[in-house]
């Protein structure tokens, strides 16, 4: 690294903060801007990384020659700091390009997919760490085992969440990769499902050794130089699949893994729900293809606590349960709700959902409504716009009117906590990728008062 300073525009993003932590560890002077404070930015500041929240070009290191600027595509192009660095002669690169440069020359294990990639990549990193093999890791969520989104090691293996947003994953050239799903998403970038799938095929073409695909994904042997293996929750056609599945009273599954090397019996999954059985199969496949001992894989899956905001249990009693999940795509919502339904049969499930992006709401309104209709009661909030301007005629209402759940109510953010104060709940789940996470602590405290 020839730069003395690295400045991050959008440093509070989950991917950006991991890279910032990496270079801080490497001894580079790191600082950055973000729009609002968050748990992540506060953690960065506590680790000695200066963060500011005003769009102020004067805070950017003045040494143009020795400063690298990294930005996230979520940052608006008309930001004063962005204009300043582009016009001022700085080297300015995207986060994805930075990640590509970091992983080049290392043994890269990557997890891609329109959903499931955060938990799966976090579990791969945990298996390698827990087994003693070691790795560095750049994750799209906070590991509950390590309370961070970045692991550092002097081993030259790096685990990466390969993000399809803005075609970021095309910067990666993994030795081993998994693709968990190829659903229509980010249609503001790709336009349609065919272009989403084409982007995943390009990613597949850059995998060199082994490619682990969710069963029946549309990638063929001619699309990749890697050897293809399939995985599935329980379909025996897949190279890696579960058998002898058991659910215990705490919501944890135990299963036997059938794989090309034989059968690995009695794997207890440390994270909740059937969806984490499937994620653990994909993670195990990556690690086994990477030569890891099968018994160490089994042990590590059992000690995995999950990723924050992925079926994240905050309160669990026989009469009052609160779970938070990042689900923001219809397929993710369906998986989360069905997992919770299996864990808590016969209990009333109330979901609070905050739609993420106007374009995603517009493109998938009917699919969102169908998934959310799996709840006993829906509390639907306003759309979280993130990087987008409003679209005329697009609001949460276009989802709400199609939902067939037995009970449903439409609220704005400010109405949520007063509403919950008067509401009896049994199993409550918050869902979404926006700022709904700001409600986790107040909801948890409110419900604990009822115990």
Number of strands: 21
- The domain tally reads 3
Can you tell me the overall shape?
globular
Radius of gyration: 22 Å
> Which secondary-structure class do the elements indicate?
alpha/beta
| Biggest sheet character | 10 strands, mixed
- Low-pLDDT parts are none
| Intertermini distance | 54 Å
User: How much strand?
Assistant: 15-25%
Structural write-up:
- With 451 residues, this protein is α/β, with parallel strands linked by helices.
- The chain folds into three domains: 5-95, 3-Layer(aba) Sandwich (Rossmann fold), CATH 3.40.50.720; 104-303, UDP-N-acetylmuramoyl-L-alanine:D-glutamate ligase (3-Layer(aba) Sandwich); 312-448, Protein-Tyrosine Phosphatase, Chain A (Alpha-Beta Complex), CATH 3.90.190.20.
- 32% of the residues lie in helices and 24% in strands.
- The chain has helices at 14-25, 39-46, 80-87, 95-103, 117-130, 187-190, 193-205, 274-289, 294-303, 330-343, 358-372, 397-400, 413-421, 440-448; strands spanning 5-9, 29-33, 51-52, 67-71, 91-94, 107-112, 136-143, 148-151, 157-162, 176-179, 210-214, 227-232, 240-247, 253-259, 262-268, 312-316, 321-325, 349-353, 377-380, 407-410, 427-431.
- The chain has a ten-stranded mixed beta sheet with strand order 8-7-9-6-10-11-12-13-14-15, sandwiched between helices.
- Strand 14 (253-259) and strand 15 form a beta hairpin.
- Helix 10 (330-343) runs parallel beside helix 11.
- It is globular.
- The termini are far apart.
- The mean pLDDT is 95.
Keywords:
single chain, 451 residues, alpha/beta, Rossmann fold, UDP-N-acetylmuramoyl-L-alanine:D-glutamate ligase, Protein-Tyrosine Phosphatase, Chain A, ten-stranded mixed β-sheet, six-stranded mixed β-sheet, 21 strands, 24% strand
């Amino acid at each position: 690294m020839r730069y003395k300073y690295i400045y991050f525009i959008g440093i509070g993003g989950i991917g950006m903060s991991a890279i910032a932590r990496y270079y801080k560890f490497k001894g580079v002077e790191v600082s950055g801007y973000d729009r609002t404070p968050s748990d992540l930015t506060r953690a960065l500041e506590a680790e000695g990384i200066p963060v500011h929240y005003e769009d102020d070009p004067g805070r950017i290191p003045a040494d143009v020659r020795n400063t690298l600027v990294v930005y996230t595509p979520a940052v608006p192009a008309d930001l004063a700091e962005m204009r300043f660095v582009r016009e001022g002669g700085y080297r300015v690169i995207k986060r994805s390009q930075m990640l590509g440069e970091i992983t080049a020359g290392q043994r890269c294990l990557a997890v891609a997919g329109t959903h499931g990639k955060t938990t799966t990549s976090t579990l791969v990193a945990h298996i390698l760490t827990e087994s003693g093999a070691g790795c560095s890791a750049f994750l799209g969520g906070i590991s509950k085992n390590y309370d961070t989104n970045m692991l550092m090691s002097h081993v030259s293996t790096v685990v990466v969440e390969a993000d399809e947003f803005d075609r970021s994953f095309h910067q990666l050239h993994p030795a081993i990769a998994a693709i968990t799903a190829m659903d229509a998403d980010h249609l503001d970038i790709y336009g349609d499902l065919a272009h989403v799938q084409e982007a995943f095929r390009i990613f597949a073409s850059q995998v060199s050794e082994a490619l682990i695909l969710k069963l029946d994904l549309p990638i063929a042997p001619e699309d990749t130089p890697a050897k293809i293996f399939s995985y599935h929750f329980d379909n025996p056609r897949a190279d890696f699949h579960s058998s002898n599945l058991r659910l215990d009273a705490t919501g944890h599954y135990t299963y036997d893994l059938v794989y090309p090397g034989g059968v690995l019996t009695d794997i207890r999954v440390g994270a909740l729900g059937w969806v984490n059985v499937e994620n653990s199969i994909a993670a195990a496949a990556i690690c086994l293809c990477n030569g890891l001992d099968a018994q160490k894989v089994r042990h590590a899956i059992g000690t995995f606590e999950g990723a924050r905001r992925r079926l994240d249990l905050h309160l669990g009693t026989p009469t009052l349960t609160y779970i938070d999940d990042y689900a923001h795509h219809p397929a993710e919502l369906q998986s989360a709700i069905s997992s919770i339904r299996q864990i808590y049969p016969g209990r009333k499930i109330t979901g609070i959902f905050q739609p993420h992006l106007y374009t995603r709401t517009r493109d998938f309104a009917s699919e969102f409504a169908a998934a959310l209709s799996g709840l006993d009661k829906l509390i639907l909030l306003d759309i979280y716009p993130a990087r987008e301007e409003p679209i005329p005629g697009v609001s949460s209402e276009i989802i709400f009117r199609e939902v067939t759940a037995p009970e449903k109510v439409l609220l704005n953010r400010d109405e949520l906590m007063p509403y919950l104060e008067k509401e009896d709940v049994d199993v409550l789940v918050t869902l979404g990728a926006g700022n709904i996470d700001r409600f986790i602590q107040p909801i948890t405290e409110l419900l604990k008062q009822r115990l």
